[in-house]
């Protein structure tokens, strides 16, 4: 029997929105670094962003600035605060992956959609408005007081929705930010959108789809 959740909950940036931190970094540093060094810079930038969200909550502008400063130091590049601000201010301009609007709209006709995002209140709705489907709740890290992959945001979301981990399906392109935590919290129904960010990891018991166009089929829609 196909599981029909009370809500489908989503990571936003990366899963639904084309979260172009790599492109933003290239636009600033691409002329300074050759291809191999730029690739390393982007890898470091992603790793430091994850590290920055593991502690106490701070504004996402600080997450970007701190992780960029650490990346510049590791790669022998001069850090400038205006570069970090430029990257941060790009975030609300980014739109969805091409497969997202139609795929979401099909699911939204049958199941309520929710976002749990490592985002700021002032930025997130600009991204959500580009997704082309209705969301009944949009919950940010600023609201919950912690960033994913910490558990508090998921617990807060379940409280707000008035349901348990057995009642939802959580959908993300990231194990490290979302699906590992969802697994640890007992969320049995998980969907991994394989956007090539991370390798498959079957230990975490998920359904794999290549894009959001495949999501409706998970629920037999």
From TrEMBL:
The keyword Glycosyltransferase does not apply. Transmembrane segments: none annotated. Keywords: Hydrolase. One of its GO terms (molecular function) is hydrolase activity, acting on acid halide bonds, in C-halide compounds. InterPro entries: 2-HAD, HAD-like_sf, HAD_sf, S-2-haloacid_dehalogenase. The keyword Hydrolase applies. NCBIfam families: HAD_type_II (TIGR01428). This is Dehalogenase.
């Amino acid at each position: 029997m196909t599981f029909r959740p009370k809500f489908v909950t989503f990571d936003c940036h990366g899963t639904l929105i084309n979260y172009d931190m790599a492109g933003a970094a290239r636009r600033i540093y691409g002329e300074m670094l050759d291809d191999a060094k730029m690739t390393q810079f982007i890898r470091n930038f992603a790793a430091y962003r994850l590290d920055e969200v593991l502690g106490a909550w701070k504004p996402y502008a600080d997450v970007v600035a701190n992780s960029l400063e650490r990346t510049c130091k590791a790669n022998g590049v001069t850090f400038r605060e205006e570069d970090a601000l430029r990257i941060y201010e790009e975030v609300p301009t980014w739109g969805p992956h091409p497969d997202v609007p139609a795929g979401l709209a099909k699911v939204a006709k049958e199941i309520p959609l929710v976002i749990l995002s490592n985002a700021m209140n002032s930025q997130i709705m600009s991204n959500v408005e580009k997704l082309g489907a209705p969301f009944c709740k949009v919950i940010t890290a600023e609201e919950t007081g912690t960033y994913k992959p910490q558990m508090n945001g998921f617990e807060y979301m379940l409280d707000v929705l008035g349901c348990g981990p057995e009642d939802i399906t959580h959908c993300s392109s990231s194990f490290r930010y979302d699906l590992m935590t969802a697994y640890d919290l007992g969320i049995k129904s998980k969907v991994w959108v394989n956007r090539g960010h991370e390798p498959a990891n079957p230990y975490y018991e998920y359904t794999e789809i290549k894009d959001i166009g495949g999501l409706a089929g998970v629920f037999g829609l």
